[in-house]
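Suppose you are handed a protein chain with no further information: no name, no annotation, nothing but its sequence. What can you learn? This example shows the usual starting point.
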Amino acid sequence: MSCPQEPKPVKLVTSLIYSDHEAYEKALSLLNQKMGAIDFIEEDFPFTFTEYYTREMGRPLWRSFFGFKALILRETLVDIKLFTNEIENNLAKEDGRRTLNIDPGYLSDSQLVLATGKNFAHRIYLGRGLFGDLTLMFKNNQFQIFPWTYPDYQKEPIRSLLLKMRERYVRDFREHFYEK
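A reasonable first move is to predict its three-dimensional structure. Written in C-alpha cells, the prediction is:
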C-alpha cells in the first residue's frame, strides 16, 4: 500500500513571450508584486521557433525567463496560472489580441512542469480547467526531453539556463529546510 505524502516545495518559474516591451515591463511588475522577489532573470531571447504567436502579437517576438525566490506548493500552480491569464487579458489590445503570453510552471529537482489550458495525452489535470505539462525530466545530471517538449526548451541556451535555475532551487531548498 502506498501512503500519501506531501511533496517538497518547488521553484516557481515563468516564461514570457512578447513583442510589446511596455506590456512586458507591466507584467513583470505585477508578477513581482504577487509572487515576490525574482532571483533569476534571463531576458530577451529572440523567439523564432514557431509562428504560433506572430499573428496575434506581431514581430519581433522575445522570450524571457524568471525564477522566484520563494518556494511554492505545487498545488498553487492553478491559482498562479489563472492570475497570469488575468494579466494577459488586462494587457491585451483593445481588439482582444494579446501583447504577451505568460507560461508559469515549477521546477523541482526532478522535473519542469508548465501550466496550460490545453489538454493532451501527456498532460495531467490539475483542476479548474488547467493541466500540468511534464516538459522536462532531470535524470543522469541533465534534462531529458520528450517528444512533446517545446522545441526551444530542447536546445541551448534555454536548457543551460534551466540547469542554473535548478541548481539555485536545490541550493535554496537545502538552505531553507536542512541548514536551520
